[in-house]
Amino acid sequence: xxxxKLRILKTEVFEANIKLSRSGLVTSTFxxxxxxxxxxxxxxxxxxxxxxxxxxxxxxxxxxxxGQKVEKDSPNPSSDTxxxxxxxxxxxxIGGVAHSHSDYATAxxxxxxxxxxxxxxxxxxxxxxxxxxxxxxxxxIRGDYELETGKLIINTFKNRDPMTMKACLVACHxxxxxxxxxxxSVDMAVxxxxxxxxxxxxxxxxxxxxxxxxxxxxxxxxxKHGKDAYYGQGGQKD
Length: 238
What we know:
Order of helices and strands: HEEEHEHHHHEEHH
CATH topology: L-fuculose-1-phosphate Aldolase
CATH class: Alpha Beta
Strand content: 5-15%
CATH superfamily: Class II aldolase/adducin N-terminal domain
Distance between the termini: 35 Å
Strand order of the largest sheet: 3-2-1-4-6-5
Largest sheet: 6 strands, antiparallel
Radius of gyration: 18 Å
């Protein structure tokens, strides 16, 4: 490969995968991160089944948006690649995608339950309840399963902005998060797990806990992410 920008993309995606592994959200090889070069229409993603401790930047796989490998001698890409590609094709504003099976977010996914927005910690990063998809149909499981998983997420976002809700729970499966690049998609996975843990504990303390009031949701989300955001230093949003 003689394209410097694609080499940089592979390095960024490798570092994002290591970041996901070190975050504590991943057991064994249960997770993957990708990033995209929009100009070239090329996605870099973790190789399938390769332990994080043995993975190198060279192992990161480049694929086109059609799923074909760019470098023929590279390893097989993550089995979740079709899901990632479907998100990139449908959400043109995103630049990175992360998938994990983190404990609390996955528990909500397995319960087929959205993560309610109960307080300001949640509202700082996700504008409202984190949605959960419909349960995948048998015909979709028998077909192109990973592609159909991506379509489930897209269908869940028909009336949602993927840039104000950078996460989705796939029912009976687990969470996908995204961001402007691979690194931010991992950050969103970390935030998601934290707010899922808080929601779970809040519901255990008070099963009738209700959603945050709209004025407070707006205040906390938009002071960080709105056009007139004032949180942080010089555009810093975290």
